[in-house]
Amino acid sequence: MKYLDEYRDAEGARKFASLLARITTRPWTIMEVCGGQTHAIVRFGIDELLPSGITLVHGPGCPVCVTPIEMVDRAIAIARRPEVIFCSFGDMMRVPGTCSDLLRVKAEGGDVRMIYAPIDALEIAARNPDKQIVFFAVGFETTAPANALAVYQARRRGLRNFSMLVSQVLVPPAMQAILEAPRCRVQGFLAAGHVCAVMGIDAYGPLAARFGVPIVVTGFEPLDILHGITMCVQQLEEGRVEVENQYVRAVRPEGNRRARDLLAEVFCVVPREWRGIGEIPLSGLSLRPEYSDFDAERRFPAEVDSRRSIEPSLCISGEILQGLKKPSECPAFGRQCTPESPLGATMVSSEGACAAYYRYRHVRTEATTDGA
Q1: CB 47 within 8 A of CB 56
Q2: Angle at which helices 144-157 and 118-127 cross, to 10°
Q3: pLDDT digits (tens, 9 = 90+) for 256-269
Q4: Which of 158, 178, 241, 349 has a Cα at 20 to 30 A from 321?
């Protein structure tokens, strides 16, 4: 395909691999912070092209995966109400809560609908004035502008039967939490290009300087990722600590100013709980007081349970999301935990690391385990 094949060129990939082999003189551990990049790495075998000294670890780059189980339980409780039409993106439908998921609620008779854009929920609200329409607003900075626009438009249109259950999270604070963790082994980052296309790159400079780690804003195709890894390794080998932009065709240093202005209008920054990691200060978005009438947690207070839910004991998604382990190291992977019967969100989401390993490497992993 034109404009895509050029970023999947095999000869170009070999050239980057050869360059990395020449410049790498010691072991380095680099984390990608985007589930889309994780899937590309596993799908195209990018990690297997690298010199043995370069280790890629997968970070909390999937917003579906880091949505806390308490928030999923909250969504399920609201979706079960007879007056509610609950709207969600498809990835969230099968994310397990404590005892159920949204798809099961739908099977039991709840009005749960998969939509493709938050603005769709507004049209459902306009057509169903006797119902309460709730949209599950999950995502990083990439989905936040569209979600903010939905609330902004709902107020302008007077759609008082619309609200959002907000579980928006921010990437830079999560990177900081990883770097502050005692077991952190990350020496450089590949930052998510689509996040930076919205927010710009300013937030990464203080992180790089404080922790002494290079950060390279990177795209999603194989040559993007190999180029980003090469730029990161070059910095590490030269002792440089900078924020560099590999994804110049899509990312401007200042990001998208109109989108950032809309976010500032509708949302404020708050602490947020991350599945498998815990609470991270200033890592989430919540509706500003002037938009609080559209907050589903305020509209349905009976469904807000402050008790901490417990993850399945076999699931190690928390360690996977922090880059401490890989999916293939989980004893439940491909056995007790599969896409059809997932223990954790990392096996459900289209950007989850466990889903990537299951889809692209499960047969190989299973054969190796059986052979052992």
Answers
A1: yes
A2: 20
A3: 999 999 999 999 99
A4: 241
